[in-house]
Amino acid sequence: MTEFNERFNKNCLRNCDRDQRKTTTDDDICLITRSVTDDLPIRCVGEWSRTKIYLLTQYFGIFSTGMKGKWDGNINYIEICSGPGRCVERSTGMEIDGTSLCVVNHKAFKYLKFAFFFDSNKDVVNTLNSRIEKFKINNAKAYYGDYYQPDQICEIILTQINQYSLNLIFIDPTDCSLPFFTIESLKKRLPHVDFIVNVAVGTDFNRNILQVLLKTDSYKEVTKKYINFLGNKAFFENPEIKQLAVDKDSLGLRNAFREEYINSLRGIGYQYFGQKQVKHYYDIVFASSDPKGIDFWDKATKNEYDGQRTLDLF
């Protein structure tokens, strides 16, 4: 048994392109089929999602195990943009557990005080709670949470845990729309927190960035979204960035965008960073204010997910 809890879903259409998914999914939730494991909704994903799930779960295992004897047991996991817990790979029709269920099923989960899962889709929240309830645990729950309203998310968290707990927050949006003030608010209300953020450069950023930089007047709203995501205008005010666009250097733009995001994290007190590119789809950025965090990250990223590797439960 792999830790992805893999099952074949024969009703998946497979290989739906982006236009087809406009009618076969709603908020990435498949409208054609439901999970073969529990008949609940599933999220349509690309096969590269396994790499992200593997990486996150590797880090979670190392982090939770490494901190289990510290902080008086006040260690928590928080996930924003959690999804319903089960995914179906559109290229193969294989169902797998998402990050939320992989965390809940991890043997290091027992070291947590609490696990919070937030999503802005109420149906998704109800679905994930139905799945969590089957494990008969009382220290994990999904909540409705809009990442444009981080104070509300923080209030929910602080009803369950001590403000000065140690927290790992994974943020997994599908595009670059999560505003940086959400990161700032979480850091302010939960001082001891490490972040793992999916910087989704392979979606709208990849499609839009050349036009945003070269045809600014026609892309004001998209530009505003990216400025809010980065937390500053420096990327768009740098003449070297404009030259990268003129040269159509997509990789250079991607790297510069990610580095500017890391600069914003430095501005709120983070000193140690890791990053992992997942093909051309997204960059996973890690931020910690403690050198132990980067030690954990280096261990978590030491082995590549090779398409066959099962999750290494520490």
Indicate the low-confidence ranges by residue numbers: none
N-to-C series of helices and strands: EHEEEHEEEHEHEHEHEHHHHHEEH
Mean pLDDT: 93
CATH class of the domain at 7-172: Alpha Beta
The helix content, as a percent range, equals 40-55%
Per DSSP, the total helix count is: 12
| Cα distance spanning the termini | 17 Å
Number of strands: 13
**Strand content of the residues, in percent?**
15-25%
Structural class: alpha/beta
Could you characterize what this model shows?
Helix 4 links the parallel strand 8 and strand 9. The relative contact order is 0.13. The longest helix is centred in the first third of the chain and has 19 residues. Helix 2 crosses helix 12, helix 7 crosses helix 8 and helix 7 crosses helix 10. Helix content is 40%, strand content 19%. The chain is α/β, with parallel strands linked by helices and 314 residues long. The chain starts with 6 loop residues before the first strand and ends in a 14-residue tail after the last helix. The protein has a domain of 166 residues: Rossmann fold (3-Layer(aba) Sandwich). The mean pLDDT is 93. The radius of gyration is 19 Å and the shape is globular. The strands form three sheets. Strands 9-8-5-10-11-13-12 form a seven-stranded mixed beta sheet, sandwiched between helices. Strands 1-7-6-4 form a four-stranded mixed beta sheet. A two-stranded antiparallel sheet has the order 2-3.
